[in-house]
Design brief:
Layout (H helix, E strand, L loop, with lengths): L1 E2 L3 E3 L10 E7 L3 E2 L11 E9 L6 E9 L17 E4 L4 E6 L4 E6 L4 E3 L5 E9 L5 E12 L6 E12 L5 E7 L2 E3 L2 E9 L4 E6 L2 E4 L5 E7 L3 E9 L6 E12 L12 H7 L4 E6 L4 E3 L5 E9 L5 E9 L2 E12 L2 E3 L1 E7 L5 E7 L2 E9 L3
Length: 366
């Protein structure tokens, strides 16, 4: 079982963050404080893990974490001054910009390099959680550059839920986890009664609000199941998503070894379309149909070395591929092809020598 984190990319492709971010909370999920103003407030903690995926360091002037404060459902906290901020890097400081409602993390110098070996965490502790159930946007902005380029602000937004105190959704299990073609699985989970629940897989979206288990029969290909719980005001709900996966031995459709005549393939696949390339810093794409993505990993002609591309969806590694450039006119471009589900973010991560990745998306017609 894994928890699917809700994120949102903002800005143009050229302004994508040079650093990658992952957010966790304690407790998970956060609980809204009781509506009774006389009751003590709930407290929570946010930890943001920061990394540089590319082999080339990025210069960073500052990182800002904007935390909405107030008494409404999109507000995370009631009082920014009660939050204790920390950063794990020596020589960096943190201060609260009360007017902007931001915690500002800065190096002692005008900027500092952050490379693939520089791991750091931003920590916000003792957060008094507001009393309205809802989803709060936590905006992380970096001012960064590579080489001698101008510094630019680049944003990542995390959607952080504040759930009812008695809400829970946990222990989403799929048994067995490996089955023969056409086999069956038993899904089970634990949940509270104060929410609605949906099970999503393939093209199926099934209401399971009144269930805590379900048998799925006749599975013919690897399948990821998503269990989505929704609570709170419909105008600003909170959503928690868990996932579980089953692997099918000898599935019906093995896209890496697809054999069919031209007429069958034409009926199965739609028209390919070229997507915007993935920059060296990586990126996230969401597709409107189930389908196949394919392309190449290309290392800049002026560089030599290796790059690894990881493609993940729903917290599961779909595949990885390596590329290597030997000289300006000789490279082994990594070629990839894999199946992706619609409406679930696909993460592309480069590690190693600076590279870009091309994407062609071919939707399935049924």
């Amino acid at each position: 079982m894994t928890v699917v984190t809700q994120t949102q990319d903002v800005g143009t492709t050229a302004d994508e963050p040079l650093l990658s971010y992952a957010l966790t909370t304690t407790p998970n999920p956060l609980k809204a404080s009781p509506e009774n103003p006389q009751a003590p407030e709930e407290t929570g903690e946010i930890v943001i893990t920061v990394a540089r995926q590319s082999g080339t360091p990025a210069d960073v002037q500052w990182i800002r974490a904007k935390v909405p404060a107030g008494t409404m459902s999109p507000d995370l906290t009631t009082d920014l001054n009660k939050i204790t901020p920390r950063i794990s890097l020596t020589g960096w400081t943190v201060r609260l910009d009360s007017a902007a409602k931001e915690f500002v993390f800065e190096p002692a110098a005008s900027h500092a390099p952050i490379g693939p070996d520089t791991g750091l965490t931003l920590q916000l502790s003792d957060i008094p959680i507001s009393r309205k159930v809802g989803t709060a946007p936590i905006t992380v902005t970096e001012s960064s550059r590579t080489g001698t380029a101008a510094f630019k602000p680049r944003e990542t937004i995390f959607q952080v839920g504040k759930f009812p105190t008695d809400f829970y959704l946990r222990n989403f299990l799929c048994a067995p986890s490996v089955i023969p073609n056409g086999g069956n699985v038993h899904l089970s989970w634990e949940r509270s009664a104060n929410a609605t629940y949906e099970l999503l897989y393939g093209d199926v979206n099934r209401d399971v609000t009144n269930k805590t288990s379900l048998d799925i029969e006749g599975i013919k290909s690897d399948t990821t199941f998503y269990l989505r719980g929704t609570a709170g005001d419909p105008t600003n709900p909170v959503v928690r998503i868990l996932s579980a996966q089953v692997t099918v031995i000898k599935p019906d459709l093995d896209l890496r070894n697809l054999t069919a005549d031209k007429a069958e393939i034409k009926q199965l696949l739609g028209t390919p379309r070229k997507e915007a390339a993935i920059l060296p810093s990586g990126g996230v794409r969401t597709f409107d149909r189930d389908g196949i993505i394919s392309g190449n990993v290309n290392i800049n002609w002026s560089l030599t070395g290796k790059t690894r591309l990881d493609i993940t969806q729903g917290e599961h590694l779909q595949l990885w591929v390596e590329a290597e450039r030997f000289s300006s006119d000789s490279q082994n471009a990594g070629t990839y092809q894999c199946f992706v589900h619609k409406d679930i973010p696909v993460h592309f991560t480069h590690t190693g020598t600076t590279a870009t990745t091309s994407i062609w998306f071919t939707p399935l017609t049924s």
